Amino acid sequence: MPQPSKEPCKKEACDIQACLTKNNFNPQRCLKVIELLQSCCEKCQYNSTHCASLSGLLKTSPKKEKVDA
């Protein structure tokens, strides 16, 4: 029986890389897979090396922009 990965969110991070490669590195075309990685990172409380790249990807998502008051 295969052992579970010790690195959470690896699949989601790989899916983003594949999506970016397929879409000429345009993150706007990969928002769904980026959101899946964000969800995974939230579930594991960002306890994954793959969550470190999430902050840069979220800057490209119009839904996630912060508004300064």
Automatic annotation (TrEMBL):
Its main location: mitochondrion. It is found in: Mitochondrion. Keywords: Disulfide bond, Mitochondrion. The keyword Plastid does not apply. InterPro entries: CMC4 (IPR027179), Cys_alpha_HP_mot_SF (IPR009069). One of its GO terms (cellular component) is mitochondrion. Disulfide bonds join 9-40, 19-30, 41-51. The keyword Disulfide bond applies. Belongs to the CMC4 family. This is Cx9C motif-containing protein 4. It comes from Aristolochia fimbriata (White veined hardy Dutchman's pipe vine). The lineage of its organism: Eukaryota, Viridiplantae, Streptophyta, Embryophyta, Tracheophyta.
